[in-house]
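User: Look at the shape:
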Amino acid sequence: AARATLQRALAIDEAAYGPDHPQVAITLTNLGIVQRELGELAGARATLQRALAIDEAAYGPDHPQVAMTLTNLGNVQRELGELAGARATLQRALAAFQAAYGPDHPQVAVTLTNLGSVQQELGELAAARATFQRALAIKEAAYGPDHPQVAVTLTNLGIVQRELGDLPDARATLQRALAIFEAAYGPDHPQVAMALGNLGNVQQELGDLAGARATQQRALAIEEAAYGPDHPQVATARRRLRNVQRPGRPWDVLRRRNSRQDQSR
């Protein structure tokens, strides 16, 4: 329904303003975001590329509106597996946001978080850690140390620390994220379960099997209550718990992009 509504709005905008008007780019961007959410990634990329061309012609290559469209496009490129392209797109968005808003603006932190995720997937773990650390500092200054947005970036950082083998640091980082989520949402929220799953993986790799088991059991109970016994997220939680009793790498938590990092206009 959202896609059909936006497609109709796009046709109206094009008829009213012409195909290259900034209002058309706004509708294209919103349509691209919906296509991404529907899993239509190639269509989303094409839609956002058209929006980007209109924005660049209207505003110039370094305008914040261009940077926002670049951010959306970079996220789609990442999901398509076009990681080098996504990195370049997000680096360009980052430079434009910094030029427009300064280095410590929350939008800069959002773009850094997206860029750090791409660096992580490229295996550039030290760079990803530094990127997430910078995003964390901006968010702490903007929102305070106990805001859920801070916990989101702590989660990203903790996962990278784990992948780097910095397990004690990862445990401390993820424990802090867990405490923030519990205070913000209560002890039985799915976001708390996500944090528990990540923490349990680190506990297991540290050899704290009893702690890992208790952590993953709590995560499973929350997810079963939230989603029911047959949800894919519950199946993931069950696998994580089984893996506590088995040697080898823990099942990776499915991380949620819960901060709505790409924004419609």
Notes: The chain is about 75% helix and 0% strand. Residues 249-265 have pLDDT under 50 and may be disordered.
